[in-house]
Write a structure and sequence with these properties.
The complex is a heterodimer.
Chain A lengths: L4 E3 L2 E4 L5 E6 L6 E7 L6 E7 L2 E4 L8 E4 L6 E5 L8 E8 L7 E2 L3 E5 L1
Parallel strand pairs in A: 2-11
Antiparallel strand pairs in A: 1-3, 3-8, 4-5, 4-9, 5-6, 7-8, 9-10, 9-11
Chain B lengths: L3 E3 L2 E5 L4 E6 L6 E7 L6 E7 L4 E4 L2 E6 L4 E6 L8 E8 L7 E2 L3 E6 L1
Parallel strand pairs in B: 2-11
Antiparallel strand pairs in B: 1-3, 3-8, 4-5, 4-9, 6-7, 7-8, 9-10, 9-11
Classes of the chains: A mainly beta, B mainly beta.
């Protein structure tokens, strides 16, 4: 069990550019979640997967945000045409199922300049 | 609906006790507690399912009152290592991703 891994840890991008973040969950976990966290706030739910199926995506902040989990393993979160308001920490978590312990990754800190 | 946590911040001396509360306007199926230290990922503490059970984790325990839609986290004989921000996450159906509160910042000083 190597934990949840997120890459990159930090990303600085210019406004208008596209960015993609990767999350590698704990291998036997079938649920994977993406959250966004801004300073002084709790994690804000974005989307989640059970295996390769995306079960909820209505909370994605806009149509510029999309996520995939091909083959039910790693997941990617893409933000197109980034805006300064997208600057935040993007957290990934995985779990065996609902109402079980979720393990969070260290996050990707995005700064849009 | 985001749960409301209180207090927003608390400062304790080592050995003192604290209570952190989490309230929801919706019926709850479960409450999850996490602690996040500065610059680190949130770390799981415990889950409470409806039924009013109480759980413990070392000197940290929690209760869940489903009728009042509230949970409380109890930290006894606090240690410096308890410092961090505590979040409650709530699930109203048993099959929905967690909605987290804004957190309670706990600082334990010597």
């Amino acid at each position: 069990d190597t934990g949840v891994s997120q890459n990159p840890r930090h990303k600085i991008t210019k406004r208008g550019q596209n960015v993609t973040f990767r999350c590698d969950p704990i291998s036997e976990h079938n649920r994977l979640y993406w959250y966004r966290q801004t300073l002084g706030q709790g994690p804000e739910f974005l989307t989640y997967f059970q295996n390769e199926a995306q079960l909820e995506k209505s909370r994605l902040l806009s149509d510029r945000f999309s996520a995939e989990r091909p083959k039910g393993s790693f997941s990617t979160l893409e933000i197109q045409r980034t805006e300064q308001g997208d600057s935040a920490m993007y957290l990934c978590a995985s779990s065996r199922g609902m109402n079980t312990e979720a393990f969070f990754g260290q996050g990707t800190r995005l700064t849009v300049v | 609906q985001q749960p409301v946590q209180s207090p927003q911040a608390v400062i304790l001396r080592e050995g003192e006790d604290a209570v952190i509360n989490c309230s929801s306007s919706k019926a709850l199926y479960s409450v999850h507690w996490y602690r996040q230290k500065h610059g680190e990922a949130p770390v799981f503490l415990m889950i409470l399912l409806k039924g009013g059970e109480q759980k413990g984790h070392e000197k940290i325990s929690a209760s869940f009152n489903e009728k009042k839609q509230q949970s409380s986290l109890y930290l006894t004989a606090s240690q410096l290592s308890y410092s961090g921000t505590y979040f409650c996450g709530t699930d109203s159906t048993g099959n929905t991703p967690l909605v987290f509160g804004k957190g309670t910042r706990l600082s334990v000083i010597a």
